[in-house]
Amino acid sequence: MSFTSDIKSELTKLETPTCCKIAECYGILLFGRAFSEKLISLSTENEEVVERVVHLLNSCFAVQPHILGGGSKRDYFTVTIDNEQKCTEILNSLGYFGFELGDSVIKYQNIEDDCCKASFIRGAFLASGMVSDPNKDYHAEFPIRNATLTNEFYDLLCEMGLKPKKSLRGQTHIIYFKESENIEDLLTTIQATNHTLELAGIKVYKDMRNHYNRLSNCEVANISKTVNAAVAQNSAIEKIKQKGAFETLSAELKFAAELRSKNPEASLTELVTLSGNTVTKSGLNHRLNKLVSIAKSL
Length: 298
Description:
Blueprint: H1 3-11, H2 18-30, E1 34-35, E2 40-44, H3 47-61, E3 66-69, E4 77-81, H4 84-93, H5 114-128, E5 130-131, E6 140-144, H6 147-159, E7 165-169, E8 172-177, H7 180-189, H8 193-242, H9 251-262, H10 268-274, H11 281-297
Antiparallel strand pairs: 1-2, 2-4, 3-4, 5-6, 6-8, 7-8
Helix pairs in contact: 2-3, 2-5, 7-8, 8-11, 9-11
C-alpha cells in the first residue's frame, strides 16, 4: 500500500460526533468525481474509504449508494448516487437549493465549528488528497477542477493555520504542501496522528543522515586538501634541492623543508607536534607556502 492509502486507512477508523460526520461526508461528496442534482459520485482505490463513505451516507442522509468495481479485474471502486430525487435531497440538506451555487461553492453553515472544518478537510483528503512517500519527497496535494472551490478551500486551509500553496496543472487546480512541517500540520488537522508521528520520525532520520553525510564530505574534502598541499610542498622542496638553491634558504625554511621531507604524508597539525611544538601551525604553514613560492620562481 502507498503512504496515501495508509493514511486514508487510518482516517477511516476515526470516531466522530454527528456534526463532524456531516462535515466529513460533505467534504467527500464535494471533492468527489461528480456532485450535481443528477449524479453524485466518488472513485477510490481504497476499500476502507468506500466503507466509510457508505456508512456516512447512511448515517447522514439515509442513502444507500451503488458500489461498482473491485475484485481482480478492477483496482478501484466507484460509489454512485444516480437517483435524481436522492441527489436533490442531499444537495438541499447541504444548502444547495436548486443547485444555485452563486458566489460561494462551499456552504459554510455545514462547517461552522473548527472541529467540523477539520472534518471537512479530512473528507476532502479522503476523496482526492495524496501524500507522497516521505522517504523520497515531501509533497501533499489536493487536485481540484473548480477554480472557485480551489480559492475557497485555500482560504479555509489558511484559516485553520495551515500553509498551502496553489498552482495549475493543465486544466486542474492544485493546492499543495511541500515542507515536512506543513504536511505534518495538515495530517494533525485531519487527525492522522500515527502518520504525523511517522513523518516526523522519517524527517529526524533524514536530517541526521544528511548531517553525517555533510560531516563525512567535509572530512574527505579536508583530507584531500591536506594531501594536495603536502604533495605540492614535497615537490617544491625537491625542486629547490635539484636547482641547488637549498643551501641559500634561511634556517627556518631549511627546518620546515626537512620536517616536511621526513614526514611527506603528515598533516600540518602532526608536523607541529613532530617539531616538538617549536613552531606554531600558522608559522609552519607560512614557511611551507614560502618554499612553494620559491620553487615556482626558480
